[in-house]
Amino acid sequence: MKTAFTVQAKGPDAPMDDRFGRATVYAIIDDDSDDPNYLENPSLSSSSGAGPASVEFLSRHGVRKVVTGNVGPKAARALRAAGITVYRAQRGNLSENLAALQANTLERIDLEQPGSSPNRGPDRARS
Amino acid sequence: MPSIACASGKGGTGKTTVATNLARIMAYERDTHLVDCDVEGPNAHHFFTLESTQRSPVHVPVPHIDLSHCDLCGVCSDACAFHAISVLADTALVFPELCHGCGVCAYICPRNAITERPRTIGSVLEATCDGMAFTGGSLNPGEPMPPPIIQAAKKTARGRDYIIIDASPGSTCATVEAVHGTNFCLLVTEPTPFGLSDLRMAVGMCRRLDVPYGVVINRSDLGDGRVEDYCKEEAIPVLGRFPSDRCIADVYARGALIVDHNSAWEDRFRGLLMALDRLLKREVNHG
Ligand code: SF4
Ligand code: SF4
Description:
By secondary structure, chain A is of the alpha/beta class. Chain A has a single domain (2-109), classed as Nucleotidyltransferase, domain 5 (2-Layer Sandwich), CATH 3.30.420. Chain A is built from 3 helices and 5 strands, in the order E-E-E-H-E-H-E-H. Chain A has a 5-stranded mixed β-sheet, with helices on both faces. In chain A, strand 2 and strand 3 (37-40) form a beta hairpin. Chain A starts with a strand and ends in a 25-residue tail after the last helix. Chain B has helices spanning 15-29, 75-79, 104-108, 147-155, 173-179, 193-209, 226-233, 246-253, 263-286, and strands at residues 3-7, 32-36, 51-65, 85-87, 92-94, 114-129, 132-139, 162-166, 184-189, 213-218, 238-242. The A-B interface holds A 43, 46, 48-50, 52-53, 55-56, 59-60, 74, 77-78, 81-83, 124-127 and B 74, 77, 82-84, 86-89, 91, 93, 95, 97-98, 144-147, 172-174. One iron/sulfur cluster binds at residues 65, 70-76, 87, 92, 109, 111, 113-114 of chain B.
C-alpha cells in the first residue's frame, strides 16, 4: 500500500510540509520498500482547488494513505471519496514520520471534521 | 439614461454614504434607480424604508455527473481550469464552490455524462422607496463569485433615467463588473497616503474600462494635500470636498440619510449633483 508524505523538499531529512494541497513535494513510499518516490506538486501554483487536485493526483498514483499537517474541507471531501486515510504529521522530518507511521503512533485525522491548526484559516481565493 | 458608479479603492471611505445620499437628492426630481452591487457586504438598504420588496434567487449552472454513464476517463477534470472536478479511482466529484460555470466539461465529456443544473449563489432584492427604485444584490456567504449577482442586479435597472451603482470597494473583479459599462465613475477617497495609493489603482481600473471618472474627497480637512496634487497633475476632476463631521457618523449609525437631516449636507450633495451633471453633459457632447 502506498503512503504519501507532504514534505518541503526531497530527501529523508526533508522537513514535513503542513499544507496538504500546497505541499512542495509528495514523498510516496510503498509498504514493502523504504525507497521514496518524490513527486513535485503539480497544483502548487494554481489559484484555487489545489486540495482536490492533489487528491486526484495522488489517487492516480495509487496512494491510499496520507501523512500531512492540515486538510481543508474540499480536500477532505475528495479524500473521503477516494477512500484515502489521513494521519496528522508530527514535528520532524520525513524519516521520523515514516518511523512513527510504521510504529502506529500517528493520530488519524477525522475527515468528517478535518479542522486545522488555529493559526491557519482556510484558503479563500478571491475571484 | 446615464448610469453612475460609486467606487472606492478601499472600504470605509464613505462610498455608500455618497451613493445613497446622491440617489436621494437625485430622486427628488428624477426617475432614479439605486443598485447596491457591493454584493459581499450590501448595506445601502439600511438607509431606506423599502416597500413592495421582492427577492429573487440568482442561479449559476453547475455540472452534474451521471455516474452510470461516466467511465472515469478524467477528460473533464483535465479540461477544467479551476480544479472543480476530481475524477478518482471509482467515483467523480464536482466542487460547486470552485466551478465558474464555463460549461467546458459538459461540452467535452466523450460519454455525455455531464448535464448542467442550476445552483443558487445569492439573490437580488427589488423594491421602491419614496418614489425611488432600489435593487440590492447579495452573495451567499462562502460563495466565491460575485459577478453573476452583480449582472443580475444591474439588469433590473435597465431603462431608468438615472442609475446609481454602489460598487464593491477595491479594484477586484466584482468592482470591475459593477463599474463596467457605466457612464461615469465617482471615486470616493480620503486625503491620506493609503487613500492615494488605492485611488491610483481605482483610476487605473477606470482607464482600462474606458469609463470617465472623477473624485470625491471625503474628510477633506484631515490628512495631507497629496490627493489634491495628484488630481491636479493628472487633470482628474474633483467633484466634491466633504469635511469630516461627527453628525455624519451619528446619522449613519441610525440608518438615516444626512441629506434628510442637515441642510448644509443637502447643499453639498446638490453641489455634487450639479458638478456631475456638467461632466456628464460634457461626456455626451464629446462621446
Ligand atoms: S469526461 Fe465524462 S466520462 Fe470522462 S470522467 Fe468526466 S464525466 Fe466521466
Ligand atoms: S463548468 Fe467549467 S469551471 Fe465548472 S466544472 Fe465544468 S469546466 Fe470546470
